[in-house]
Fold each of these.
Amino acid sequence: MAQGVFAITEQRDGELRKVSFEAVSEGRRVADGLGTELTAVVLGSGIDGLAEELKKYGPDKILVGDDPALADYTTDAYTNVLADFIQSSDPAVIITGASAQGKDLAGRLAARLDAGVAMDCVEVKLDNGDLTYTRPMFGGKIVANVEIEGSPQIVAIRPNVMSITENPKECSIEKPTVQVGDVKIKVIEMKMETADKVELTEADIIVSGGRGTGGDYAAIEALADALGAAVGASRSAVDEGWRPHSDQVGQTGKTVSPTLYVACGISGAIQHLAGMSTSKNIVAINKDEEAPIFSKADLGIVGDLFELVPAITAEVKKLKG
Amino acid sequence: MDIVVLVKQVPDTESLVQIADDGVSIKTQDIKWIMNPYDELAVEEALQIKEAQGGTVTILSCGPEKAIEAIRTALAMGADQGIHICDPVAEGSDPLATAKLLAAALKDLACDLVIAGHRAVDEDNYQVAAAVAEFMGIPQISMVNKVEVSEGKITCHRTVEGGTVVMETALPALFTTQRGLNEPRYASLPGIMKAKKKPVDVKTVADLGVDAGSVGAANRKVRIKALNLPPERQAVRMIEAEAAADKAAELLKILHEEIKVI
């Protein structure tokens, strides 16, 4: 019978991404609940140091797949190697991040293994040995509780939601020979934005602007800078061409769960609210006191964002010295 | 170049979604149905490739009878023909079963390239396209915001956190769309008239040779136990001060001292 939990981590340029620690920490909690072992899996090229880093989060075992062909993520190489690892260990549960990598991988792996997937989970509950997964649907307008039949159960966790817990323990590291198999996809180039730009889906704080900005994002960017935050945008702002598509928060853009979401000049269309309603704290700034955004906010200020946002930036700078 | 586009009909993103009395499905009566927005990008991209290089564009959809509307919309945009997997046996299929049906229909089609939305904005599973590619044994590249097709290969810009990765693969292949790829055209009136005469082949589960015991609501691997509305937030606390500077100071005080997020 299938048993054990796998946590699939991810690295880019030899550095583990934050969602990896979330996957291993959540994996530890699930494995403890099921009374079983946790195996963390890391794939890459020349990644000896990464296993040491993963130890902190309490896996019983770490499987390292090290091969030049695994340096950058490709669906086929990663699926081939992970399917081999999974088939030889027969885990009951596989946890991965619902990141660009995990979203691409989960569907492919599920079809290979004939497994069910709970995508973009925000909570994993254990009741009498049965796992229930909580996941938003319709971009967050609805929250579903789902169960998966059979094994393995693949769970992709939403980045930035599960807590990271250090829990070091005795741990074995294995480095099996890997067969990357037939790889049809070639990575030509990685085009990354400047390193200091914070990714929306991973940001702790997001300052977002909508139609009320009139396309002028200087004040919003200055506040984001002062807070070390990412800049987001509503669909109408993106449709106007004021911000790139990658900044769009909402049902047809990114779903975000930061600790603090500051919505500036965003009225709060249903599809935007869906994408940010799982934020832990929401501040709304809008000229119109009737704007729907205030119904989803914790804190609200009615006023002109071009006066308020710079005033807030000044206060942040004062506070941070 | 023969292209197949996978299309799904979904509730309009501007719709309010309400939970039905059974607690595990949504109320469908008042919903406006549209083509999944990411699938519109897929149809547009297929049409642009066809216009540049020749070939055919086939729309493939699995869904109830009214899903024909989404297929007709794609035909009105300019696609050549449709295939509609429409069978009560298939209703309520989970992503893996849906992918099995789509892959079975694709087996009988001439196809160099499959294009799909990276997710459907109803259940947000991000799964069907990847599973179709696996069942067909072809490579996939997902969340693509720029693509070039030439000489038997595609070069795709795949969006990832913090940037894009340029990837290349030989055809046949599948890629999924991301916003920014193109601006989908509207169906013109003559397009809509023409679409009515374009062929749409209706297939049942039996026609596709798929085991009825592996599809449909009764055979879901992923079972919905309950749907809930997101927890209500407490009523908003408005910051009432006169000057902008005082409002800002009050906000910072709350964020720093009470909520401790800054």
Amino acid sequence: MTIFRQTPESGGAQVATKEVTVINKLGIHARPAALFVKVASKFDSSIIVEREGEQINGKSIMGLMMLAAGAGSQLKLIAEGRDAEDAVAELEKLFQRKFDEE
Amino acid sequence: MAQPSIPTVTVEQFYLDNAEALQLKLVAGGAGLAQRIHEGSVNRPGLALAGFFDYFAFRRVQVIGGAEWRFLKSLGEAEGLRRVEQMLGRKIPCLAFSRNLNPWTAIEAACDRAQVPLFKTKMVTMKFINAATIALENEFAPQISEQGSMVDILGVGVLIRGESGVGKSESVLALLERGYSLVSDDVTRIRLVSGRELMGTSSETTRYHMEIRGLGIINVPAIFGVASVRSEKRVDLVITLKEWNQVAEVDRVGLEQQTYTILGIALPHITIPIRPGRDLARIIEVATLDQKLKSLGHNAAREFNERLIQRMRNPSAPRL
């Protein structure tokens, strides 16, 4: 699978990663994907979401939906950039909040 | 946004707009053409002619058909005239004789005196009443002006809203180049028809013209051909163009159908963020086609999402 990867932002780049589990019943369908992208886009860092070795750009709705991450799937969030830590922390909260779905 | 207005309809306006369709001929009482029609409907004044005025719809257009005329004639000319004069005294807006009936000259004179316009039509009474009711309903339809241009894209009437200078006219121009037709530029008059449909049109003065920054006023059919304009079209879709940074939240997947309400009718509504280099006309065109698909019962976003959820539930299912 080809990997879509953004170049890291220059200057004080940090890398943050986090393992998350999809716990909302319907998985990452259109609405959660849009919400994820909305939050991810607030950050300067590039954000990559990985599932079973497949990586996609975390700022792409179509990419996220392509992962077809159903309930119970394990994802890895990788952020690169000056606000990488914050990005990962905030995105993780979305998963914990079940994307405000339930 | 302007307040909706119920237009003031004078007998003259009703006559000028519908003389041909209703085959109206003004016979007498021309001095009263400036009278207002207060109620957009038609009345057959049989009971009034019989002398019953306790409940008389005097604010409407009065129609004398075969029955009323036969009744008046049965009274004899003197008494018949007296009854008509009694009715004219109630401030009716106008009087119409159908079936090509010829009122007595005394009635014509009475209408002149009372300054009540008297019309004649060749139409049979029922047909005339039906047509006149529809015509009056149109005249009385609530109206509003919306800031926005309107284009007919493949049979879908699209109202394109947006602040001045946001690129409405440019988008419209690009749509005209693609072969679609202009209904109105910049300001669209919208009329509620029979309480359920919205008709968009332009004001008569600006009809078929556009104002393009840097070019001035252009004549659309002269440049793009007669097929590039139409005088009115039902409004099916509202598209709002907004500066990128003014759009608080854009629906990225299109699962939710936004609406925009005009004269109490909720229309499908799409907000398109603009940015230099975005081909707005193309996006408007596709939005319209997608709307057409929705009206045929296919919601692409919803169908896609249902398949995705299905697949996540059952990962062994065939790939998307």
